[in-house]
């Protein structure tokens, strides 16, 4: 029988030297002193054990029990309990829990007032703030969330100072009858450090014992293990894993038997949702810990079953009596709504944080910062009273931007609906065709090929799943210019603030963003349906804006800039493969220049690693494209943009004037921008950033010059590398340089040049609206009869061999399958190797066809042979006389056609499988999710957790 009224304190320590002096003072300074102290140290390396031994003196029983760091908290409590002298009460303390002088006295007074209370807990307040509430009792929700009933960061104002019955209390300051502790065999060894208090309280309640919280007793708790301030061998770096595993275990071993199947399913689905939630807030580690905890518990059914049998053996109270102490069933849903609101506010908070940082930077450089801030606030209040419409109508720049956007949307009317022509092939009927082309290793195109699908099919397929194939291409062409306008405005505004806190004048931002948005339109790329330069124009300002984050003083923001830049660079590379080698060369030049100027600044890994990581993202995300391109001997695709071949050739003047193809605006529009960029070198205040723009332009010009000397010889055509992206880069660099020069130029000079500069966007917009010609509505037609096209859609083995030309001038051939060559397939076919066997068969058809040759055509999955007008009469005559070929009708009398009267081979186009393709697609999917998570904004809760 334990001695009535006696209290023994049981203190467990582990590397707690930073808190122990205050904790020991609090223990010795109790108004009702403890009768004895038992101390257990679990492998401390900071002298905690010696500190406890020297501070407690005669109170300490048998010295400090020293055990290894792998000893769990339940095991440490068991060791201390075995050494503890006879006493009625055991007071559990952590090495980071500092009791208020009256804590023990208040706990014992509550025990005397309520003799049925067996477990008592204090009010826990945050240490070192001392005022914020942590816990006044604790329970658990049906999803495993630890519930305290407190608001986040709530201050103690006496609002919860009532003694009440709870499910459990924290072991930091728990006062428990020794008989109860021994009856329940202490704490569960399966909960080594976290969650043992909730499990113990649940078991105590089921066994008929009562737990109360005593708010008059106060203990200050640092929560070192939970906040990650202290690592132990039991937690390592995965604190969240241990906490989540403890929560899952506690629910499964204590739940009612009839609700266990539902609980298993609920926790599994809840874990999936929590993983998604953590990924959305860039908490990849916590997401992995969630999965690991679920796998750990669900893979140990024997342990769960044994724990449930042990609890059922001690159960005295009805489950309904315990269930009222648990959290309400609706509480997890409220937490879900809170998370959604936190996530929605994250982007807003981030934008406000950026604005505040810029405002602070401005105030730092402004001697009259306080007065300036007061003026800004006064102006904001004045504008707030006038209304949004009035502000808009009285702002000429806003009106001009709105008019420009409307004009761009009207001018893009040719792209509404289905578009094809020029360099743009028709889209397939279903987005499933794009997904199939992206996922499969062997394509049933032509005579079958292993050339990988172009990388831009993935973003098109993702958007096409929502908008449809026709809608996504139309949206890209229509919205490219407005998106470029928006991105250019953001970029130029930030760049202007690098030069001066006030930034560039709004009229200058309007000129620069308007000029940039027209680059794809005036270059002729839009009119020819060249998606590479069109998408590059829209993406490039956002990419440059993200890359400016590499100059941020905070390492976390530099890393976030790395992932965002990497994703945007990947998107640009998918549509314009030249973007990545250009970015690598530019990155090397910039890092070399930075090393030469500020050598010591690049010694830190957080300075040079983010740009390198951004450059490493595209090869990883685009691995399913470039790796098979090399293995399938289609490396030429690494230098081609989307669209039909051959790609337009560019003269040096076209490169400087920003012209791509024959449908571009007059050359002098682009030349004016180049001249303005050259004049921007004159003003001294902005000369350095303008030189940076010229370095970018020089790197682009060098790349274009080198690539301009290359000719890519493919099976069906010879073409130059696609240089549209480099044209966009050059124009972008010129625009930024001109804006910077205008910002630094004297007012009179800037006003004089403004008249000339205004001709560029005004002239470009007028040309696009009234003069520009497009080839987006060109329908080349087809010499193939409609019934043959319909037959070809029945399967890949119903191919149509189209032979053009004559024996005298030379013959060319192509095999049409399905609904014809669509966007994405044109690039695969262009890069596919020539089928030399079929070439020989075509030669034999034109010279000496035989029935055996017709059978071979059927084995190749060819059902029809077509000679489009004007058909070579000698070839047609020989085919008419060939056994196995039956004359077929054609709409054009000058076109001749035949049907192969032989059984077609079902497996004519079957190709080999590839485990490498599967691996690359899995790597791409996992890497894409990973990088997008790292790009996402951080919620306030995650920020607080990291700071803690």
TrEMBL record:
What stretches pass through the bilayer?
A: 457-486, 507-526, 578-598, 607-627, 665-683, 690-716, 722-742, 749-770, 915-937
Q: Does the keyword Transmembrane apply?
A: yes
The domain of life for this entry's organism is Bacteria
Transferase listed as a keyword: yes
Could you tell me the EC number(s) of this protein? 2.4.-.-
Question: What InterPro entries is this protein classified in?
Answer: Glycosyltransf_2 (IPR050834), Nucleotide-diphossugar_trans (IPR029044)
Q: Which residues form the signal peptide?
A: none
Pfam families given in the database record: Glyco_tranf_2_3
Cite the entry's keywords alphabetically.
Answer: Glycosyltransferase, Membrane, Transferase, Transmembrane, Transmembrane helix
The entry's protein name is Glycosyltransferase family 2 protein
What organism is recorded for this protein?
A: Nocardioides oceani
């Amino acid at each position: 029988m334990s001695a009535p009224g006696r209290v023994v304190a049981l203190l467990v320590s582990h590397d707690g030297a930073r808190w122990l002096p205050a904790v020991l003072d609090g223990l010795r300074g109790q108004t009702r002193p403890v009768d004895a102290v038992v101390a257990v140290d679990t492998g401390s390396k900071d002298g905690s054990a010696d500190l406890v031994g020297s501070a407690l003196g005669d109170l300490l029983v048998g010295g400090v029990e020293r055990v290894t760091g792998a000893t769990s908290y339940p095991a440490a409590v068991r060791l201390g309990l075995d050494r503890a002298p006879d006493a009625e009460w055991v007071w559990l303390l952590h090495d980071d829990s500092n009791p208020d002088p009256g804590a023990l006295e208040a706990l014992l007074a509550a025990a005397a007032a309520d003799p049925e209370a067996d477990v008592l807990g204090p009010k826990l307040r945050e240490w070192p703030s001392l005022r914020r509430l942590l816990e006044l009792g604790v329970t658990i929700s049906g999803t495993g969330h630890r519930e305290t009933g407190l608001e986040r960061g709530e201050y103690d104002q006496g609002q919860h100072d009532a003694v009440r019955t709870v499910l459990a209390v924290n072991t930091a300051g728990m006062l428990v009858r020794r008989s109860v502790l021994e009856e329940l065999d202490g704490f569960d060894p399966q909960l080594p450090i976290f969650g043992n208090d909730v499990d113990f309280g649940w078991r105590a309640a089921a066994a008929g014992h009562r737990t109360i919280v005593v708010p008059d007793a106060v203990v200050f708790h640092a929560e070192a293990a939970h906040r990650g301030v202290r690592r132990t061998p039991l937690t390592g770096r995965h604190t969240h894993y241990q906490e989540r595993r403890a929560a899952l275990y506690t629910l499964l071993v204590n739940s009612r038997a009839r609700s266990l199947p539902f609980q298993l399913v609920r926790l599994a689905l809840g874990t999936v949702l929590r993983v998604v939630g953590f990924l959305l807030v860039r908490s990849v580690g916590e997401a992995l810990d969630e999965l690991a905890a679920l796998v750990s518990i669900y893979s140990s059914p024997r342990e769960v079953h044994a724990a449930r049998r042990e609890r059922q053996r001690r159960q005295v109270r009805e489950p309904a009596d315990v269930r009222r102490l648990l959290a309400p069933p609706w509480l997890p849903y409220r937490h879900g709504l809170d998370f959604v609101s936190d996530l929605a506010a994250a982007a807003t908070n981030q934008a406000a944080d950026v604005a505040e940082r810029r405002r602070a930077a401005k105030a730092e450089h402004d001697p009259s910062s306080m007065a300036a801030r007061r003026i800004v606030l006064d102006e904001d209040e004045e504008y707030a009273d006038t209304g949004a419409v009035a502000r808009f109508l009285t702002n000429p720049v806003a009106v001009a931007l709105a008019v420009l956007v409307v004009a761009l949307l009207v001018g893009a009317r040719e792209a509404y609906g289905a578009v094809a022509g020029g360099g743009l092939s028709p889209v397939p009927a279903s987005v499933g065709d794009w997904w199939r082309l992206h996922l499969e290793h062997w394509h049933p195109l032509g005579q079958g090929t292993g050339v990988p699908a172009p990388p831009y099919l993935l973003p098109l397929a993702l958007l096409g799943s929502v908008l449809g194939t026709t809608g996504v291409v139309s949206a890209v062409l229509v919205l490219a210019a407005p998106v470029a306008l928006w991105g250019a405005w953001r970029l130029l505004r930030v760049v202007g603030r690098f030069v001066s806190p006030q930034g560039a004048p709004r009229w200058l931002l309007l000129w620069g963003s308007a000029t940039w948005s027209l680059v794809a339109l005036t270059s002729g790329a839009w009119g020819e349906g060249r998606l590479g330069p069109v998408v590059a124009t829209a993406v490039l300002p956002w990419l440059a804006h993200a890359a400016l984050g590499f100059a941020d003083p905070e390492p976390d923001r530099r890393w976030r800039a790395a992932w965002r830049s990497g994703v945007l660079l990947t998107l640009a590379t998918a549509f314009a493969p030249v973007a990545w080698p250009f970015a690598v060369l530019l990155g090397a030049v910039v890092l070399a220049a930075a090393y030469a100027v500020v050598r010591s600044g690049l010694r830190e890994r957080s300075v040079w690693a983010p740009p390198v990581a951004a450059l490493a993202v595209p090869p990883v995300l685009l691995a399913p494209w470039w790796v098979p391109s090399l293995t399938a001997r289609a490396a030429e695709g690494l230098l081609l943009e989307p669209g039909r071949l051959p790609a337009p050739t560019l003269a040096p003047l076209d490169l400087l004037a920003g012209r791509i193809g024959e449908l571009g605006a007059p050359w002098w529009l682009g030349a004016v921008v180049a001249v303005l960029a050259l004049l921007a070198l004159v003003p001294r205040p902005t000369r350095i950033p303008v030189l940076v723009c010229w370095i970018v332009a020089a790197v682009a010009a060098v790349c274009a010059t080198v690539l301009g000397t290359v000719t890519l010889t493919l099976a069906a055509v010879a073409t130059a590398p696609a240089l549209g992206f480099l044209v966009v880069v050059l124009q972008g660099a010129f625009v930024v340089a001109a804006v910077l020069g205008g910002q630094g130029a004297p007012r009179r000079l800037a006003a004089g040049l403004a008249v000339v500069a205004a001709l560029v966007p005004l002239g470009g917009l007028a040309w696009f609206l009234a003069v520009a010609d497009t080839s987006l509505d060109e329908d080349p037609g087809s010499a193939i009869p409609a019934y043959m096209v319909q037959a070809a859609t029945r399967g890949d083995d119903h191919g149509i061999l189209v032979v053009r030309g004559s024996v005298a001038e030379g013959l060319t051939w192509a095999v049409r399958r399905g609904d014809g060559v669509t966007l994405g397939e044109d690039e695969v076919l262009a890069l596919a190797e020539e089928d030399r066997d079929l070439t020989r068969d075509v030669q034999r058809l034109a010279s000496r066809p035989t029935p055996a040759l017709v059978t071979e055509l059927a084995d190749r999955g060819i059902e029809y042979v077509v000679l489009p007008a004007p058909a070579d009469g000698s070839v047609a005559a020989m085919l008419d006389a060939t056994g196995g070929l039956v004359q077929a009708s054609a709409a054009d009398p000058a076109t001749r056609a035949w049907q192969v009267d032989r059984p077609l081979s079902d497996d004519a186009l079957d190709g080999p499988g590839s485990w490498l393709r599967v691996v690359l697609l899995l790597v791409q999917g996992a890497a894409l999710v990973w990088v997008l998570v790292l790009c996402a904004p951080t919620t306030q809760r995650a920020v607080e957790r990291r700071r803690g």
